[in-house]
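Mods, move this if it's the wrong board.
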Amino acid sequence: MSGRVAGKKALVTGAARGLGAAIAGKLADEGAQVLLTDINEAGAAEQAAAINARCGEGTAYAVRHDVTSEQDWQAAVDAARDRLGGLSILVNNAGIAPGGSIESVSYETWKQAFAINVDGVFLGCRLALPLLRENQPASIVNMSSISAMIAGPALIAYNASKAAVWMLTKSVALQCAKKGWDIRCNSVHPTFVDTDILENFRLDKSRPREDTLDKLSAQVPIGRIGEPEEIALGVLYLASDESRYMTGAELKLDGGISAM
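Not the wrong board. Structure tokens:
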């Protein structure tokens, strides 16, 4: 299949690297115009330039964006209107994965996790809705985690914040349906994916990264960690009109770990 999101206009947060970069690239390859946002403006601009080199000028744009800032969110939505001509896909991807148990995590770390992982999604859904309503059918995809469903003692802030994203998604979906808007809202729940965020799982930094990957892979029934491309394909499905009858749902891309 090709052109699965042709004519769509997407905003992807946290798009300077990792999953965000992979998602933005996949949406562009399948026909969407994309606004890449990130607090790392240079990284987002580099990814946008790579997309334009591959897909043609005017396919991708980049802006600096702190997702914890209401002012930055309004500026990003305004940029989508000005540069893309509207917005029909919102991917709330920006997030952090701090470690720490109830005894070791600091209150500042807890608040930062919720500010980025939850407040950022809340602000995005709230402020993008008026523009999404102008461009129906539309889709909101919120990046949660399998850690929203499977807890660990040393990931309390991450577990709790991603669980909040999971429930926030359902509430937004029900509100859009109640209003009769053709705007769907779903969440994606990956397990370990080969991005920089895996550094948070390296307890012994003196050992090779491959050791950590091997240990994490052993926890996954399918026998390996995920690739960014595989998660991007799941987001593509939710962003496309192929999933018009799916809302308030969770897409688990976890190699079978939640089935155990």
